[in-house]
């Protein structure tokens, strides 16, 4: 977790430093990063009509983390997977579904499931926070 502080209208550097330290201490004591979906973990699958393989795994290209208040240590995160009707071939980066994340049963964030095609993908779909993920060299299971 990264924090940025901005201190304005302080008379001197010592006061700015003290205020910055106080704000950083508060931020790191009150908030922490919580992993809700780990990189590469299979969390489901999607049916691919006319595909070489009937189903493709759904996993994440990277850890899906949220900043959570330490006051909510007992907060429970759940998610629902909603997939579209998908017919092969998949276009690289096409949105093929959504994952809705809930915090204590209330809507928290929506993520998208993107498809990839070709032999380099080995029948996988990935989670992203954008409708069109950026191209990135992630090896044989990622975007090219």
Provide tags for this entry.
disordered C terminus; 9 strands; elongated; mainly beta
Q: In words, what does this structure look like?
A:
The chain has 1 helix and 9 strands; from the N terminus they run H-E-E-E-E-E-E-E-E-E. Helices cover 12% and strands 40% of the residues. It is mainly beta and 144 residues long. The relative contact order is 0.17. The strands form 2 sheets. The protein has a 7-stranded mixed sheet with strand order 5-7-8-9-3-2-6, with no helix packed on it. It has a two-stranded antiparallel ribbon with strand order 1-4.
Short description:
The protein contains 1 helix and 9 strands, in the order H-E-E-E-E-E-E-E-E-E.
Largest sheet: 7 strands, mixed
Ends distance: 28 Å
pLDDT under 50 segments (min length 5)?
132-144
The helix content, as a percent range, equals: 10-25%
By oligomeric state, this entry counts as single chain
- Give the strand order of the largest sheet, numbering strands 1, 2, ... along the chain: 5-7-8-9-3-2-6
Number of helices: 1
- What structural class should be given to the helix and strand makeup? mainly beta
């Amino acid at each position: 977790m990264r924090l940025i502080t901005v201190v304005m209208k302080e008379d001197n550097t010592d006061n700015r430093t003290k205020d910055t330290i106080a704000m950083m201490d508060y931020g790191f004591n009150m908030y922490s990063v919580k992993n809700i979906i780990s990189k590469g973990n299979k969390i489901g699958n999607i049916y691919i009509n006319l595909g070489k393989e009937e189903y493709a795994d759904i996993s994440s290209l990277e850890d899906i983390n949220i900043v959570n208040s330490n006051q909510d240590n007992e907060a429970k995160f759940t998610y629902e997977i909603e997939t579209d009707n998908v017919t092969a071939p998949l276009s690289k980066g096409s949105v093929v579904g959504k994952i809705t994340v809930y915090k204590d049963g209330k809507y928290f964030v929506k993520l998208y499931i993107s498809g990839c095609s070709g032999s380099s993908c080995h029948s996988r779909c990935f989670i992203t926070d954008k409708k069109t993920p950026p191209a990135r060299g992630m090896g044989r299971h990622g975007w090219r």
